[in-house]
Amino acid sequence: MPDVRTLVTGRGLVEAPRWHGDRLYFSDWSAGEVIAVDLAGASEVVARVESFPLCTDWLPDGRMLLVSSQEGRMLCQEADGSLQTYAELGKAGWNDIVVDGRGNAYVNAIGFDMMAGEEFQPGFVAVVTADGSVGQVADDIAFPNGMAVTPDNATLIVADSYRHSLVAFDIDADGGLSNRRVWADLGESYPDGICVDADGAVWYADVPNRWCRRVAAGGEVLRTVTLDRGGFACVLGGPDGRTLFVTAARWQDASETGPVPPGSGQVLTTRVEVPAAGWP
Predict the structure, then answer these.
(1) Any binding-site annotation on 108?
(2) Which fold has domain 5-271?
(3) Is there a binding annotation on residue 209?
(4) Is the pTM of this model over 0.85?
């Protein structure tokens, strides 16, 4: 088992890790906070948004985008720290976001309120292009979770948790998606947050199986990092791009204290051989 280090502990449902500049940014959905932490463990809250989910990514110009799910808005943090509306998304239910190298912001939505016990409906993917327009670009994603873009800006990969697979699309010149295909069949895995490395493999986090796993196109398992709690998302980063950051927490069924026990959320790290590539 690889050496796994705890960088942050005592948090709630932690998600959406992103390496930016010289720090890791992640969201604590339970607290409605976006936190930045350096490799020594020093952290600060950089934004507060009452949203569940609460996912973030960065525009090429360095501004942070935040998905305010309940409001159906995409927010942008300006240089003065204020949060301004970047795009009106519409009906609530928005989940993950990834921004490609051209500034296209892909955001997905779950088709039903799982926590409220609504009947299942498949979700979809929308794009907010650099000119501010919003449009749906893919549908019939059973439960869309993490997304990643390859370093050539040519392919969007989406984790479909309920179908136990990673789905890929070609990214068209206008930001639209085409040529849908199954990038990897993951068997009984439930992929959540994902990232791409320089060899073209994908790392994905898995809550019920309590691991982060690296797979090649087609689904061949290349490496598994076992965890003592559910893995919600992962990203490669650090000065050399070879640190795998994992947001993890102890999942529990719906209860008075929420989907994870308070204080069980952690950010974990381990070293890997192949560095980060693409987005996030």
Answers:
(1) no
(2) Neuraminidase (2.120.10)
(3) no
(4) yes
